[in-house]
């Protein structure tokens, strides 16, 4: 469906009939009315993903790669088949460029402790942005502390957009790594990552893109972006928890030392010396999350079956509708109003703490996320302790946004606003 909006599937998204693909929205065969607006934290799972995981465990489970019996051969086929699915999803050049990890956090820690540790020394710099998730801040802080390098931060404006002039000014001969969110988890901002990669490569600086919030909403082509590394988590893409992906250009991965030692990442072991397996096994020590990879493959097939053109068309409608609704609520201020945004609404209400907002909305069966969203520097930038965040997925409709606004109206009345 590449390049085409499917009218029939768009109709399913608009009417909410797609919700029937997700068991959590069903009780006794009927829609239970749950308004789930926390997909940015973790998305719900369609039946096809649950079936794929269950079928592996029920019918084809064994440890992979070294077994010659049928169960092991079949489990290996499914696990490696999921790698091929991810390669196509990202348009990576080679399947060996796809490394399975536990999630985005592990992927960034892996990179900071391999290529980061190799490249950074006293006086060098790592460049990140003010809108990063803690998982793209703390690993670099740890590396800077141990290596003598410095962490540099690109500022953001009042709309939650990167100051690109400042970014260019911060890039220099001492910049050895750049790590940037493709989409901000706290603001929804979609960053101009292709431009960032091009600017960095002019100076020979490798770029890591954190795609955790991007892959559920946008098509990603790593060859077109020309990024050096791209990382994401399966559970935000309607797949299982505990599985994620690190994409890296083969020529860079080949030069990186192993991150963990153990089974499957070795070629040969003696007490005197160990030689390491070729990619991708070199970075997949131990028994992997076999079912997680299989479930992620099923989730990717499900999402690509709908088509990102269709998903983006539906998201754009919800974004406009949500903005209009929230603009009509007295005392509500959105945090993050970038022109280019994913379907995510972070806001504060005058005189009402976000935790009270979340608790009240939960009583109305409206599930939102409240707090700092593992992005405390963002909260400090906008001088708020926390926000309420409504993040939407493919199962959400305008009716969900109506329910959110109706619940906020009851909340304001309760607090005498």
Strands, total number = 17
> What's the overall geometry?
globular
* Helix count from the secondary structure assignment: 15
Low-confidence stretches: none
User: Biggest β-sheet, characterized?
Assistant: 7 strands, mixed
Distance between the termini: 48 Å
Strand order of the largest sheet: 4-10-9-8-7-5-6
> Remind me, CATH topology of the largest domain?
Aspartate Aminotransferase, domain 2
Provide the residue-averaged pLDDT. 96
Structural class of the helices, strands and pairings? alpha/beta
Structure description:
There is one protein chain. With 417 residues, this protein is α/β, with parallel strands linked by helices. It has 2 domains: 7-43 and 307-414, Aspartate Aminotransferase, domain 1, CATH 3.90.1150.10; 51-304, Type I PLP-dependent aspartate aminotransferase-like (Major domain) (Aspartate Aminotransferase, domain 2, 3-Layer(aba) Sandwich). It has 15 helices and 17 strands. The protein has helices at residues 7-15, 47-59, 70-90, 104-112, 115-119, 138-147, 164-170, 193-201, 222-225, 250-253, 290-306, 308-327, 354-363, 376-381, 398-414; strands at 26-27, 30-31, 35-36, 98-101, 125-129, 150-154, 175-181, 207-210, 229-233, 244-248, 266-269, 274-276, 332-334, 344-349, 366-367, 369-371, 387-391. Strands 4-10-9-8-7-5-6 form a 7-stranded mixed beta sheet, sandwiched between helices. The protein has a 4-stranded antiparallel beta sheet with strand order 13-14-17-16, covered by helices on one side. It has a two-stranded antiparallel ribbon with strand order 1-2. Helix 2 (47-59) packs antiparallel against helix 11.
């Amino acid at each position: 469906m590449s390049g085409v909006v499917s009218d029939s599937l768009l109709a399913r998204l608009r009417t909410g009939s797609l919700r029937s693909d997700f068991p959590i929205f069903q009780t006794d065969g009927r829609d239970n009315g749950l308004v789930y607006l926390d997909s940015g934290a973790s998305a719900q799972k369609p039946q096809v993903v649950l079936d794929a995981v269950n079928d592996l465990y029920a019918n084809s489970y064994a440890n992979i790669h070294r077994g010659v019996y049928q169960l092991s051969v079949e489990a290996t086929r499914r696990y490696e088949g999921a790698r091929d699915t991810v390669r196509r999803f990202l348009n990576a050049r080679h399947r060996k460029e796809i490394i399975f990890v536990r999630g985005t956090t592990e992927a960034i820690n892996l990179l900071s402790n391999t290529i980061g540790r190799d490249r950074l020394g006293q006086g060098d710099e790592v460049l990140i942005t003010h809108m990063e998730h803690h998982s793209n801040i703390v690993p670099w802080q740890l590396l800077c502390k141990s290596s003598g390098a410095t962490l540099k931060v690109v500022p953001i404006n009042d709309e939650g957009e990167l100051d690109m002039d400042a970014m260019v000014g911060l890039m220099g001969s001492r910049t050895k790594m750049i790590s940037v969110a493709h989409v901000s988890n706290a603001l929804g901002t979609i960053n101009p990552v292709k431009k960032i990669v091009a600017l960095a490569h002019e100076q020979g600086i490798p770029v890591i893109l954190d795609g955790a919030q991007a892959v559920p909403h946008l098509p990603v082509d790593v060859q077109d972006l020309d990024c050096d590394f791209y990382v994401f988590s399966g559970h935000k893409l309607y797949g299982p928890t505990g599985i994620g992906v690190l994409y890296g250009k083969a020529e860079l991965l080949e030069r990186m030392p192993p991150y963990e030692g153990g089974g499957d990442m070795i070629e040969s072991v003696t007490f005197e010396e160990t030689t390491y397996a070729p990619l991708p096994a070199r970075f997949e020590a131990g028994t992997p999350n076999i079912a997680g990879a299989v479930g992620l493959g099923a989730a990717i097939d499900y999402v690509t079956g709908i088509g990102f053109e269709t998903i983006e068309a539906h998201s754009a409608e919800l974004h406009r509708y949500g903005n209009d609704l929230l603009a009509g609520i007295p005392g509500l201020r959105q945090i993050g109003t970038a022109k280019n945004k994913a379907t995510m609404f972070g806001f504060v209400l005058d005189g009402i703490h976000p935790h009270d907002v979340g608790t009240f909305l939960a009583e109305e069966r409206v599930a939102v996320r409240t707090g700092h969203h593992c992005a405390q520097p963002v909260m400090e930038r906008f001088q708020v302790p926390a926000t309420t965040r409504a993040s939407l997925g493919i199962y959400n409709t305008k009716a969900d946004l109506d329910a959110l606004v109706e619940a906020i109206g009851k909340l304001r009345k309760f607090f005498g606003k």
